[in-house]
Amino acid sequence: MNKLLISALAFAAFVLATGADAARYRDIHVFCAKTNCPDGAAPFGAPVGDGKGDYFGTTVDGGRFGGGTVYQMTLASGKWQQSVLYSFCAKSSCPDGAAPQGNLVIDTSANLYGIARNSGKNSGGVVFELSQDSKGWTYRKLYDFCSAKSCADGFAPINMSLTYRGAASGVPYDGTSPLYGTTASGGAASEGVVFSLAPLHGVWTETVIHSFCQAKNCADGAVSVGGVAVDGSGNLFGSTVGGGKYAKGTLWQLAPSGKKWIFTTLHHFCADQSGCADGAAPESAMILDGTGTLYGTTTSGGTNSNGVVFQLVPNGAKSHHSVLYTFCQQTGCADGSVSLASLALDGAGNLYGATEAGGANDSGTLFRLDGPKFSRFTTLVSFGGTDTTGTGPVSLTLDATGALFGAADSGGPNNEGTAFQYTP
Is the pTM value of this prediction over 0.85? Predict the structure, then answer.
């Protein structure tokens, strides 16, 4: 076969592959479509499906009052239609909260639960609920952080999605069992808390499960962002950005024991104390597989200092941490760098994730890890291109159909981000 024919076939294969990827990806909404962004701006939480064809997400900015939004996406006649369910900061000083982040939780009655990281009665953020009736959607504030003296109950829930027991298996929230989360500040040592929130005699009541930096030199970790994962036995798993033996963050477990919780540090990042080959500063919630193994990402560390994808087999002090992939192995970080988004695991055992930077356009990537022991890395999408106008993907979730939904908090024609869908 002559070289010209080989080159032509190779080019055709490239075009077909590129076209297939483009066909799999679509921006389902470009934010700030109107003056002053009444539809929202800077989306952060990935659109979450209710199983009936509707998807719900949040934006940090925009809306009628500039405090962010909760929005709904509906597919009708092949086109996605967006509507705003609630605009934050509806009154002076924003007692309803501002800048909602993280994925929403949907209960069996289709009510929505979420976190706003700013404002509220005490300027420490709020937990909220949106419920629907024949008249539309109604906002209700469930809890104001920093309601306790010296913000002992927590302050500033950053990049955080609420979760509950059963979430890992896809069971809808029942509306009454505890919701769990973390804050980046507040608590006994002002380094954040792990909390539960549940209705008690009709009033949503917060309980602090753990305050960070109780151990000497914050050996138990400090500043927890991103939230937690809950296994079938009710154990909570999470991470901290700082603290730990080497001040580069930790992975931890809280195990229920009667009315108490037992805290265990499972891994201290930067164990080699030089290049932090095991990663550093995890900022997203870990996910669980069916065996109880955990998967997560870090925003820094790794042999190239651009973060890693890691695996953790929890077993107390004998927990086994391993790096599945170190970012920026390719020239120009074509494989991506800095992962803020939680991973997603499909039914075939493939891991999906997103990076905020790197890729062909240095605007982030969507990637897959598969094969034996997740040894095969594939860049699926490089953001910032012709077909992927958003930049800096910060969240990702997998719905029941196997499609991935996410948010890029910048880029797009209006430079205020996009919500996207990718079908593997």
Answer: yes
Range of the structural domain that residue 64 is part of: 24-422
Edge-to-edge strand list for the sheet holding 365-370:
344-345, 351-355, 365-370, 376-382
337 falls within a domain: yes
C-alpha radius of gyration, the chain, whole number: 21
Reduce the DSSP state of residue 33 to 3 states and report it. Answer: coil
Whole-number Å distance between alpha carbons of 127 and 116: 6
Closest by Cα among 189, 117, 202 to 156: 117
Q: Six-digit token pair at 220?
A: 């138990």
Asked if the structure places residue 168 within a domain, the reply is: yes
The model's pLDDT over 252-261, given as tens digits with 9 standing for 90+, comes to: 999 999 989 9
Place of tokens 């809808």: 172
User: If we measure between CA atoms, which residue out of 418, 421, 376 comes closest to residue 398?
Assistant: 421
Residue 317 lies in a domain: yes
Structure tokens at 332: 């120009």
Which one, of 163, 184, 415, lies nearest residue 283 by Cα? 184
CATH of the domain at 66: 2.120.10.30
Digit-coded pLDDT (tens) for 263-284: 999 999 998 877 899 999 999 9
- What strands, in cross-sheet order, belong to the sheet with 236-240? 229-230, 236-240, 250-257, 260-268
In 153-307, the DSSP E strands lie at 179-183, 193-200, 203-211, 229-230, 236-240, 250-257, 260-268, 287-288, 294-297
Distance set, CA 182 to CA 63, 93, 223, 237, 265 (Å)? 26, 24, 9, 11, 16
**What's the number of domains the chain is made of?**
1
